[in-house]
Specification:
Blueprint lengths: L13 E12 L11 E6 L2 E14 L19 E14 L6 H4 E6 L2 E12 L2 E2 L1
């Protein structure tokens, strides 16, 4: 089925329902805040998600993560957020496996954001 992953028994892929991501908003008319729902496309999986927490903004010029809290994101901004899925999703961090750690967010027919997985929360091996 789409989203299923074959892996080595020595190095199982993680199945998570919460993960931290670095997110860049490409095209969206309104602001995006905690509780926003969208469709996540990651490797071959397509899953409905909720942006559960807005953590920190990312400075576009330096790429550094600010310590101040993030209230919302708008078009052209980047930030660190926590994504929650309804069911477990096989994924890895971008540094461990770039193919398994990059994704797009879509709303209706538009791609609104791209990002990469930075941290897995509540890790279970698949």
């Amino acid at each position: 089925m789409p989203g299923f992953v074959l892996c080595s028994p020595k190095y199982p892929v993680h199945a998570v329902t919460r993960f931290e991501v670095a997110l860049g908003i490409l095209e969206h008319r309104n602001i995006i805040c905690a509780g926003y729902r969208a469709v996540l496309h990651i490797h071959t999986a397509i899953e409905e998600i909720t942006l559960s927490e807005m953590l920190h903004p990312i400075d576009k010029k330096t790429g550094r993560i600010s310590k101040r809290p993030l209230q919302f994101l708008k078009q052209g901004q980047q930030g660190v957020v926590v994504i929650e899925t309804e069911g477990p999703l096989c994924t890895e961090t971008f540094t461990d496996s770039p193919q398994m750690g990059r994704f797009t967010l879509r709303d209706e027919t538009r791609t609104i954001a791209i990002g990469k997985v930075t941290k897995l929360l509540g890790v279970k091996s698949a």
